[in-house]
Amino acid sequence: MSIRLKPNATIGIVGGGQLGRMTALAAARLGYRCHILTPEMDSPAEQVAAGITRGEYEDKAALRRFAAAVDVITFEFENVSAAGLDLLAALRPVRPSPAVLRISQDRVAEKRFVNQAGVATAPWVEVDSAEALDAAIARLGLPSVLKTTRLGYDGKGQALVRTPEAARAAFATLAPKPLILEGFVDFAMEVSVVVARGADGGIAAFEPVENRHRDHILDLTLAPARVGPETAAAADRVARRLAEALGLVGLLAVEMFVTQDGRVLVNEIAPRPHNSGHWTIDACPASQFELHVRAVAGLPLPPATRHSDAVMKNLVGPEEVALWPAILATPGLIGHLYGKAEARPGRKMGHVTRLFPRGALPGGFGLSDALGPLGARICPE
Ligand code: AMP
How many CB atoms lie within 10 A of CB 328? Predict the structure, then answer.
């Protein structure tokens, strides 16, 4: 179904987090309203949205009320029940489609899909019993990574296992099952590409960026990634190919490992705006959120170009958000806060971007210096 939303139309966003908030801000600039579905009170997204339906994602009456209030529906987080999305899709266009969401919700479906599209991942085996685990270890070797197939994020639901005993202990505690055992990748770098695909099949992809994690949570994104042109081109090709193969209308983030010999392996895909694309708000004429809104609204996509290089540092937990006054007092730091009342450990509270002329992205100590009061918080390279 091809639609082009008129100005003042309403985009429904399933989920109330910061991704919905930044999508709603981009939508407002393009003349659209956003209406949020979330069970949460005072969510980051509803603070900047035109309307809210408060309800559980499984609550059929709430889903129907939400659909009746909007012209098109998208989502900002993936753990929405696929059955709920099907109900929504019967009432309004849902972009990306529930079929795309189903693939990204399940690591087995995801990896199968990626491999069938001719794209490499780490070797993996589905593990649904203790015997299957032993067989998987015999095949993939150790160390390897045992992961839940559903409902995992920010490193939750996974364990790096170095011995068969540790693997068995992790198998006993990780839930829900089945699990997946993945070969451990001794990566040189983690990169991601955010790609948008419009209803007309047009594609725009931001250059690959480099991601550094702390405690399994994204800490830092460097744009562009410090990789050679061949690796950058390979990452770009992978993202475009997956967007095409999914028949995507919307945004897709593709997280990849770059191996020591420069190959690219897909780790995860997410059919929504992504934390590693937040730098685009400040460094690009059209951000990932604008591309998302345009794709969902059926508008043409602008090119995903950047006018500056950028570093994005997440503000995680009470320690980092406490630096907010110092961040505001530092020229050159561009601050974003998500409006969350409570700063729990590990919670993403905001982010900070610093821009550089193209080609002038610093490394090492230069990077810490550039982040001012946040410099001491980043892990050494
Ligand atoms: P995930 O939840 O799959 O995105 O994994 C979170 C993080 O764990 C990744 O960004 C990597 O830093 C690390 N990781 C996950 N899978 C592997 C793997 N197979 N080999 C090495 N590191 C991994």
Answer: 11
